[in-house]
Amino acid sequence: MSEFPTKARVVIIGGGVVGASSLYHLAKKGWTDCVLLEKNELTAGSTWHAAGNVPTFSTSWAIMNMQRYSTELYSRLGEEVDYPMNYHVSGSIRLAHSKERMQEFQRAMSMGRYQGIPMEMWTPEQAKERYPFLETHDLEGVLYDPTDGDIDPAQLTQALAKGARDMGQKIIRFCPATGVTQHDDGTWTVHTEKGDIDCDYVVNAAGYYAQRVGEWFKPYGGRTVPAMVMSHQYLLTDEIPEVEAWSKENGGKLPLLRDVDISYYLRQEKHGFNLGPYEPNCKGHWMTEDDPMPEDFSFQLWNDDLDRIEDIVTDAMERVPLMATSGVGRVINGPIPYAPDGLPLIGPMPGVKNAFEAHTFTFGIAQGGGAGKVLAEWIVDGATEWDMWAVDPRRYTDYTDQDYCNQKGMEVYGNEYAMHFPHHEWPAARDKKLSPVHAKVKELGGVMGVYNGWERANWFAQPGDDTSEESAHTWGRSGPWEQRIKEECEAVRDHCGVLDLPGFSRFVVKGEGAAEALRGLVTGGLPKVGRINLVYIADHRGRILTEMSCMRLGEDDFVMITAATAQWHDRDILRNAMPAGVTVEDVTTTRDTLIVTGPKSREILSGLTDADLSLGWLTHQAATVAGQPAHLIRVSFAGELGWEVHALNEHMPAIYDAILAAGAKPFGMYALNSLRIEKGYRAWKGDLSTDYSLLEGGLERFVKFDKPQDFPGKAALLAEKQRGVKKSFVTLVVEAGDCDAPYMSCIWQGDQIVGETTSGAWGYRVGKSVALGMIKADLANPGTELEVEIYGEKCRAVVQEDQPLWDPANERLRA
Ligand SMILES: NCCCC(=O)O
Question: What digits encode the pLDDT tens for the residues 403-459?
């Protein structure tokens, strides 16, 4: 028996597939002195009872990347680590019952092909040929993914563990971690029942116990992990002779079937079926005080509850009538952790240095391989190959109380395969964070959306407009909102609009040395006192980490303003970069912002404020508005004359009322998105992400190569400048149909994919569908004709001049 280790570079808490994959990938990157702790046997939590499906399908680029990587790894892993596994690449068919579902499949297929996954669209007849037991009369079509399949979850975990051990890593089973202590130098001691282990980094990979483990990190800046636990059942039928005969004849398994509109997967298991429903009347566990999470639930299941899934089972038997010829052999009803959006948490632990997370996986087997790669990159490189914001733990902030997690977990589970339409807002757990003028915004017809937990108006409905959830079940721009967005954009263009923007993240960065520290962090220059600048922060590769507005109040006194969703991401970047003596105070929740913009905005504000409205673009000043103290900033994300009015929450209702009474028209986030795209203004985690460098993103004017301070990414950006960029940011005018280009639509030249869109919308001021995107640098010339593939339809697109489509000389906003 080997000695208990007292030191390690990394300690991973949790021995499911994700913990094992993380250990394996750390070793692959050369960190071979790491330890994994498992309180029971490997796989004892959710891994052992997982169904084992390995899909690549996703409409998220990042998730698809992660899942695709898993399939590639699993294909070679057995041989690589000398641990043969049952991995069946059977292919899969996904059934479409509607035109909208077909559009979703087209989009996924296009992304898949861009990633090298040869997905195909099939007719129902083609599906029937490949899957003779399938009832197809009511289907619109089928998506076929040849790379899909299933793997034995326990064998996979053991293979990863063996590979890790063979490279020197240690796995200690039956060794519960009992707590952590962080030392002044940022290193850790992980306490266990068998002794302490000192380490540089800790990883919480504790599956459905991640919330409990997460509590240990609270004294060091941590928060309650946003998660809950669902009961997921799948049933295994007895063997069916026809399935056996088909398998023998065809030398393999039937393709894995997902009837996503009904909400289940069905795959061949030996010579029977494995049916896994995601039922709408689902059940969470361990959510209330009278149903506490047990200290240990290793290798345990709940009793089956077939009533809950009866409707779906009946439907599946109609879809594959052969199923009805067999009895139910076994039901597996086990705990699966759910985050509020159904996606895992992989990356830096918010608020805590040298701690990482890889937990709360609902599709842990499909994602485990890729998750280990991503986590190892975070720890070893401090950055990931693909932008992984979709699963970044910092995407959640302080609104995710347990009630929120429970409601959202149930909603996501019951809609596991639902389509996520661009104008649809999910209804569960709303109103967690309200603006001080929320009631007024609602009274004006605000149809609300959620931004980092804050309710903001997406658009303003008029009496009689359809604001039902169902009305938003479309990928298109047509809908009850369209006319209203147009009117809102026109009001901003011709008169003055006002948008309430609660939750705009803001940090007061203050103290001797603040300016110097910021100069060493951002890529560009800082504003003079009394002015505001856009600043960018890059990672060591020169890729875009974030964008902030930097408002300078004094020599060493700044307010950094950033996207609502970036709150904890940017907070941690600022806090980690500032030296002792410089404070970073998050004042997001105590203040509200109004965007007041349009050619009449000066006229409207002049009757309400003592501010000097002649001060130019990118200035700011303290003033009163409607008799209330406020701060006015001369900027406009809409690209018109305008100001942002910032004020403490208690002062905003009077300001908002006065601005409305003076004639400003309320507008919403959808209009703002359209207006900013016409100006080529980038949005964070769409157009601005770590998939692109600042130079690729067309942001060289925000990089000050000649400043004396070093800053993250400086050397990489200089090198890139010398060798030239591979990709370039462009604006495209698209001859689109009813749908504007969503994020990650493929851009084609002939039969070659030459780039991707990063956002798209109808521009109501220019009367065109506009897309922002990244294309091969040698094609980024005005007039180049390309095609953008939008939900399967290739639309002609033309590269525009390198200047805004609307008001190219910026005359309107400087007026
Ligand atoms: N265990 C989750 C698998 C779900 C799916 O294959 O679609």
Answer: 999 999 999 999 999 999 999 999 999 999 999 999 999 999 999 999 999 999 999
- Interval between CA 758 and ligand 1 midpoint (Å): 28
Nearest to 148 by CA among 371, 390, 365: 365
Give the atom of ligand 1 at the shortest distance from the alpha carbon of 50: 1
Residue 277 C-alpha to ligand 1 middle, in angstroms?
9
> Is 53 touching ligand 1 by the criterion CB < 6 Å?
yes
Name the DSSP letter for residue 778.
G
Q: Check whether 379 has a pLDDT greater than 70.
A: yes
> pTM value?
0.98
Ligand 1 atom at minimum distance from 51 CA: 1
Q: What residue type is assigned to position 426 of the chain?
A: W
Terminal-residue alpha carbon distance, the chain = 78
E strand or H helix that includes residue 436: none
Ligand 1: does its nearest atom lie under 6 Å from the Cβ of 51?
yes
Q: Judge whether 790 and 745 are in contact, CB under 8 Å.
A: yes
pLDDT value at 555 more than 80:
yes
Indicate whether 1 pLDDT > 60: no
Residue nearest to atom 2 of ligand 1 (CA): 363
265 Cβ below 6 A of ligand 1: yes
**pLDDT band for position 2 (cuts 50, 70, 90):** confident
Q: What are phi and psi of 624, to 5 degrees?
A: -105, 145
User: Which ligand 1 atom is the nearest neighbour of the CA of 267?
Assistant: 6
Tokens of 398: 């302080």
Residue 609 confidence (pLDDT) above 60: yes
Q: 460: exposed, middle or buried (C-beta count within 10 Å: 0-12, 13-18, 19+)?
A: buried
The DSSP output letter for 48 is: G
Does the pLDDT of residue 71 top 80, yes or no?
yes
Percent of the chain surpassing pLDDT 90: 99
Of 53, 333, 362, the residue with max ligand 1 atoms within 8 A of its CB, to mutate for a pocket test, comes to 53
Looking at the CA of residue 52, tell me the nearest atom of ligand 1. Answer: 1
Q: Residue 487 corresponds to which tokens in the numbers above?
A: 């009117």
H-helix segments, 320-401: 364-381
**What is the set of domains in the chain, with CATH numbers?**
7-211+227-338 (3.30.9.10), 427-501+589-692 (3.30.1360.120), 504-588 (3.30.70.1400), 726-814 (2.40.30.110)
| Tens-place pLDDT, residues 148-173 | 999 999 999 999 999 999 999 999 99
Confidence of residue 106 (pLDDT cuts 50, 70, 90): very high
Residues 6+ apart with CB under 8 A from 294: none
Q: Are strands 35-37 and 7-13 parallel, antiparallel or unpaired?
A: parallel
Is 55 touching ligand 1 by the criterion CB < 6 Å? yes
The residues near 596 (Cβ < 8 Å, ≥ 6 apart) are: 496, 497, 498, 604, 605, 642, 643, 644, 645, 659, 664
Average pLDDT, integer, range 95-114:
98
Ligand 1: atom nearest CA of 256 is 6
Residue 368 Cα to ligand 1 middle (Å): 13
pLDDT tens string 322-349: 999 999 999 999 999 999 999 999 999 9
- Inform me whether the pLDDT recorded for 815 exceeds 90: no
Is the distance from CB of 363 to CB of 12 less than 8 angstroms? no
Q: What is the tens place of the pLDDT at every residue in 123-155?
A: 999 999 999 999 999 999 999 999 999 999 999
The ipTM value here is 0.93
Report the alpha-carbon distance of residue 691 to residue 347 in Å, rounded: 16
574: region left, alpha or beta (phi > 0 left; psi from -120 to 50 alpha): alpha
Cβ(801)–Cβ(680) below 8 Å:
no
Alpha carbons 31 and 24: distance in angstroms, whole number: 9
What is the Å distance from ligand 1's center to 51 Cα?
7
Coil, helix or strand at residue 479: coil
DSSP 158-206: HHHHHHHHHTT-EEE-S--EEEEEE-TTS-EEEEETTEEEEEEEEEE--
